[in-house]
Amino acid sequence: MSRYPARTLVIAVGVGLLAAACNASNSTSTGNFSGTTIRIVTFTGPQIAEPLQRRGPDFEKATGAKVQVITVPFSDLYQKILTDFSTKTNSYDAMVFDPQWMGDYVPSGYLEDLTNRVQNDTALQWNDIAPFFRDFSATFKGKVYTVPLDGDFQMVYYRTDLLQKDGLQPPATWDDYISIAKHFQGKDLNGDGKADFGSCWAMKRSAQSYWMFISVAAAFLQSQGTKQGSFFDTSNMQPLMNNAGTAAALDIYKQLSKLGPPDQLNNDVGDSRGLFVTGRCALSLDWGDIGPLAVDKSQSKVADQVGAVILPGSKKVLDRASGQLVDCNSTICPYAVNGVNHSPFAAFGGWSGAINKAAPAKTKDAAFAFLSYMSQPAQSSVDVTIGKTGFNPYRTSHFTNLGPWTASGMSEKAAKDYLGAIQASLQSPNMVLDLRIPQTAFYQQTALDTALAQFLAGELSANQTMAQITNQWNSKTDELGRQSQLDAYKSSLSVTK
Amino acid sequence: MSGEASARQVPVAASRRSPLVARLDRSAGAVFILPAVLVILAFSIFPLLASLYVSMTRLSFSEGGIHLTYVGFGNYAKLLVGIDRTHFLGVTVPLTPLTAVVLLVIYGGFAFLLVRYLRGPGRTVAGFVGRLVTAVIAGALVWLVVDTVMTSGRPGTIVVTLIYVGVDVSAQYLLALGLALLVVQRLPGRRFFRVVFLLPMMITPVGVAYLFRMLTDTSKGPLYPLWAHFGLTDVSWVTNPWGARLAVMIGDVWQWTPFIFIVLLASIESLPIELNEAAVVDGANRWQMFWAITFPQILPATSTVVLIRLIEAFKIVDLPNVLTNGGPGTATESLTLHAYTIWRALDIGGSAAVAYMLLIVVTFVGISYVNLFRRRVTAMA
């Protein structure tokens, strides 16, 4: 027996409490879920599905709940979930999906209100999640419906070695971007003797092309801060798709379609990422994925040769009263940097987890515990550094704690550069929120995407493209009710940052 | 008991049956056929009627679920005269001298056939009306194809589908016939090639689409050395509208030629050899033997297999969806892909309307083909 029983007891109790606290903060805030199976649906990976599948067994060991990940193609995910819920099949207990779709899912009463759960779950560290993702990606009309698992902003990536060698600065405006792309188009950029490309984008139809276009257009369409919106006039719900700003964006978009690989119109982000990390492109536009992919030496030939910057901007922006472009000044572009209006685009909003309201109570508890577990810093700080997860940083700790980034193979300079570009976007008062109103899928995936594909293919002129988008958006708005759509749009823009 | 005695007892037994049993006996046929009728009603007629109703509705989401609002022919109006007109029908332009001449020739052909029918011995009023309706609808489709393809206009999804059907089935038939005639020759390795020619049909259409996606990629992929050798690495098949359509059609021809091949091969191999032997004795050359003996005999099989392929070809979706996603623009989008694209955004009313338009076109083509061609061929055989 110890000579100091009281001290020993205090130490033992202290260690015990510490261990319990560590355990609680590292795993689940949960309890025992033995015999529970969580059926969670997401898109066919490997991105997004991979971390869920990889961490499922660990979660099962900790809680007893089995995680069954069901995957469907991204293009089918929206309607699969909706069909499942609306027919009351309820074959999914939870989903990791596009938070834009909350505009359809929440009003229909399909999603569980998570407001109290996230506030009461200390292990989740809710306040560590960046305000934008808490308030926009996770929240709909003041209530929390999702747990963010991913942070999505589009950025421009460039080859630091090439720009440095030729004495070029990273692009600040879209004109700069085109100029740099033209400079490198057709040159050998990776030493294999083949002509390479100035810029590589995803321009394929039914893929991600419309997000790329909005990243360009937003620089012209939104200059007065987030609440101004980039898609509709907030006074009458008229589309902002038929004006000099959109025309300028279409012109840039068309030029860029010719400053890339010959089959760029048939490339999605998988193709453009592959081309960039194999050293075939000087520039690219993408979410945060290229950062981690570029340091993955199993596939990358440009490790530590990649820089990232906030989306390029414009020195001219749309004057909504006249429909014409005007020069930036402190009134028109209050957030401009060196006279350039930047409108970083939170495209997609970041993959987020939600729970089916109709699932059994115990399953809902287990599903929330799993989503919390995935988001907790212990797991997510590692997952966001792995390219194949598709998860990008979204917590404050992801930006401040460089340990996991350097451990993943990224140099400290590259990590700071990469995270700095995301932070610059996150902190911008002029960030562009993605569309989140009823039937967003029609407005973007059907009407906008098709018109852009037709424009790139030469089926439509710029004026015809703008007219077609405007007509289709107006037609859908009138079908669904202009006032209710306007209310939904304005509601989506009222973000408390 | 002898057969004679038994026969005598049957009317007696029948006369003793109650009216109920007699009635059941009369209904036996209907009862036996009822399960099949119910299955057809449940799995064919009901979905057909339900989707007709859906095509006249608009889906919206509200508290507690979905809501279907009846909109009449609104979804059809969108396709034919509304905001989806150019997508569905295409962009038409005023006739040029060339298209006017082409249309005149084709319409003249239709008129000639109608007049010939009227002067023929077997004419009936119903037959004439049927042919007149066929000529009018076919004339409208021909005008749509000519005016969107041979001008500065742009074909819509209905025209793209008709192009796929016409080109694919014709090419598949000609290739399959050539291969079948080749394989029936006593050539070395013919058994091996019979199997090889069938392989494409065994591959899933999505697999074929990915295969052709790789093959048509000129900047990488298995054919890169070939493209590089000819200096074509800066040229893309799938970013040019006709290049992309051609890529889709080559893939479809590659996949489905074996189906026609196997049917024609079986038909040719079952033909009696005596007629050919007699023709050889009479000094006929190979072409005469084929045209006067073989071809007429395989016409029944030809007409059947072409009908099957016609109907199937209208439903093409896998290849354009995977190979080009319907692009560039809407250049390779078939009617089924058009319906699928709309359905993905949960505009199920609009999607059902496109599907019904496809059904109408397929039914028209199928019935016209059977009435005007297949019956005649079968009768000749």
Query: What is the CA–CA distance across the termini of chain A?
Result: 58 Å
Helix content of chain B: over 70%
Number of helices of chain B: 16
Oligomeric state:
heterodimer
Count of the separate structural domains of chain B: 2
| Class from secondary-structure proportions of chain B | mainly alpha
Helix proportion range of chain A:
40-55%
CATH homologous superfamily classification of the largest domain in chain B: MetI-like
Provide the gyration radius of chain B in Å: 27 Å
The poorly predicted ranges of chain B are 1-8
| Average pLDDT over all residues of chain B | 89
CATH class of the largest domain in chain A: Alpha Beta
Q: Supply the helix-strand structural class of chain A.
A: alpha/beta
Order of helices and strands of chain B: HHEEHHEHHEHHHHHHHHHH
Strand content of chain A: 5-15%
Quick recap of the structure?
The complex is a heterodimer of chains A (497) and B (381). With 497 residues, chain A is an alpha/beta fold. Chain A is 44% helix and 12% strand.
Structure report:
The complex is a heterodimer of chains A (497) and B (381). With 497 residues, chain A is an alpha/beta fold. In chain A, 44% of the residues lie in helices and 12% in strands. Chain A has two domains: 29-151 and 349-415, 3-Layer(aba) Sandwich (D-Maltodextrin-Binding Protein, domain 2); 155-347 and 428-493, Periplasmic binding protein-like II (D-Maltodextrin-Binding Protein, domain 2, 3-Layer(aba) Sandwich). Chain A has 20 helices and 15 strands. A five-stranded mixed sheet of chain A has the order 2-1-3-14-6, with helices on both faces. In chain A, α2 crosses α13 and α18 (440-456) runs antiparallel to α19 (462-480). Chain B is mostly helical. In chain B, α7 packs antiparallel against α13 (286-314), α13 runs antiparallel to α16 (348-380) and α15 packs antiparallel against α16. Chain B is globular and about 75 Å long.
